[in-house]
Amino acid sequence: MLWNIFAKNPFQSLETLMKKVMTCFEKTEGLFEALFAGNKQRVHALAKEISQIEHECDLLKQEMRSHIAKSVFLSLDRRDIIHVLSNMDAIADISEDLGVLLTLRWMELPKDLQEPFRNLLARTHHVVIEASGVIELLHRLLETGFSGPDAEEVLKRIDKIDQLEHEADKAQDIFGKALFAHEDEFKPAALFMWIKISNKVGDLSNAAERMVSHIRLMLSAV
To answer: What pLDDT does residue 193 have?
Structure first.
């Protein structure tokens, strides 16, 4: 089936994987809600669900990559498509990493730090959701020859994502400063873990921004 899809429309295949990736990614929101609610059982259950969906994403990615070298994508550069695919898959990988981190040891965050962390999560989620919206628009570009209003809309949305990713970076910096202002309240291992968790959350928006940046390159080369 994927062979036939790739032969006709590579963007449709990317959209299929993006939907699966978003199913994986969106569970991270519930993961942290369960953590802050002190629901250990829910944290472990969601981490397990995320891991299973990430595995399904891997299977889709592997099948898609195996067809890329054999398929003809009009004037599209295969390397750009591979980069889009890889960064899309990275979102699922990072989501799984977050689930694993939260099950290694029970993590707690003081109330004063929960607000800046929630802000980081919210801004990161905004970046990833906007990036997934760009993928959903791509199939229309084949119908318009990669030009016209649809192409302009995609490029404008990519510019918006660049700005949103910058705001997510600032939110990560704010949380990092707040975390170190409270470092005496943490054991060294807990402090290390929260730094790692915040970096992983930041990696989500970075992967989403890189994904759409390669779409920009793809369109500029057509």
So the answer is: 96
Report the 3 state secondary structure along the chain.
Answer: CHHHHHHHCHHHHHHHHHHHHHHHHHHHHHHHHHHHCCCHHHHHHHHHHHHHHHHHHHHHHHHHHHHHCCCCCCCCCHHHHHHHHHHHHHHHHHHHHHHHHHHHCCCCCCHHHHHHHHHHHHHHHHHHHHHHHHHHHCHHHHHHCCCCHHHHHHHHHHHHHHHHHHHHHHHHHHHHHHHHHCHHHCCHHHHHHHHHHHHHHHHHHHHHHHHHHHHHHHHHCC
Q: Model confidence over 134-180: pLDDT tens digits?
A: 998 887 776 666 677 878 889 999 999 999 999 999 999 999 999 99
Report the CATH number that the domain containing residue 14 is assigned in CATH: 1.20.58.220
Distance, in Å, from the CA atom of 134 to the CA atom of 121, rounded to the nearest integer, reads: 20
For residue 23, what pLDDT is reported? 97
Q: Write the CA distances from 176 to 51, 97, 180, 191, 199, integer angstroms.
A: 27, 19, 6, 10, 9
- Dihedral pair phi/psi, residue 73, rounded to 5°: -110, 50
Q: What tokens appear for 77 in the block? A: 């550069």
Which one-letter amino acid corresponds to residue 14? Answer: L
Q: What pTM value is reported for the model?
A: 0.91
With a CB cutoff of 8 Å and minimum separation 6, the contacts of 205 are 123, 124, 127, 128, 164, 165, 168, 169
Count of domains forming the chain: 1
Range of the domain at 184: 2-220
